[in-house]
Amino acid sequence: MKLAILSREPKLYSTTRLVEAAEERGHEAVVLDHLHCNLVLEKGQPGIVYEGQKLEGFDAIIPRIGASVTFYGCAVVRQFEMMKVRTAVESQAIVRSRDKLRSMQILSRAGVGMPKTAFTNYSDDVPAMIQQVGGAPVIIKLLEGTQGLGVVLAESAKAAQSVIEAFHNLKARIIVQEFIAESKGADLRAFVVNGEVVGAMKRQGKEGEFRSNLHRGGSGTLVKLSRAEKAAALLATKALGLGIAGVDMLQSKRGPLVLEVNSSPGLEGIEKATGLNIAGKIIEYTEQLAHKRKRKKPAASPAPPQVLPDTPVD
Fold first, then answer.
1. How many Cβ atoms sit within 10 Å of the Cβ of residue 125?
2. Chain mean position to CA 234
3. Which of 22, 49, 195, 196 could form a disulfide bond with 29, CB atoms 3.0-4.6 angstroms apart?
4. Which of 55, 4, 52 shows the shortest CA–CA distance to 30?
């Protein structure tokens, strides 16, 4: 099988592990920088040119699309889809997951537990919005933030109003969420592949830090999820249509609350915390996708319309 791993950084842990896992299973794995892919559109022949060469012969791709290049990265994934190449994560699912507000609307409709969340476009509604999520303290998040950036804890209503008004003055889009005190700066990351939780870790923020992201200095340890936590992770992943996902949850008095579903979750933290070969699970899943495509017979071409001789009209 010939795989393409879409990644801007071939030396990143996640990228190198996917290449290793693919080669261990006898596959050819090529790392492509999706920002260097040129999309060629013509009647019935979508194509991709990379470093002067037309890309051909790939059985499947594994997208590793960074949040800052979601638009172009998804366009590249979509082009591969148009070329009938299987993808481990579909373009539209990536788009859904990257829009925090849209993804939370989808999760809410699907019945996934989550912190109370509010969104408004008007600063005049700020006091009411703070009360709608249970009052201060509250969490304020930029819709475009990643890895814990653009996340603020406002400990009083006055502080929350000042932060929200400042963001609005900068024309920044934000959501406001209730603060789950009992989580104590920790969250759970469930790694889901093909409808199965293949690994989980508990991430604990460093002392004095309410964010548990490993990029912010947090630590990850192996954890066994409860039945409710597994169910929440799987429901959230299914609702967004993701084949691969990292589901971040808080443990609360009313059960697991999903914070975010990541369509390009990193492998380093989860593999080191659990000792599991998560990259291998991703390659196995990608193999299944590619084999489904090979087994599927092409649709029969429709018969050409019958051309009748001109008939004189009376």
1. 13
2. 14
3. 22
4. 4
Retrieve residue 269's tokens: 């933290």
Given a contact cutoff of 8 angstroms between Cβ atoms, the answer to whether 186 and 180 are in contact is: no
- pTM value? 0.86
The half-sphere exposure of 3 on its side-chain side, counting CA atoms within 13 A, is: 32
The residue that leads in pLDDT, 132 or 298, is: 132
Region of 134 on the Ramachandran plot (φ > 0 left; ψ -120 to 50 alpha; else beta) = left
Place of tokens 């649709």: 299
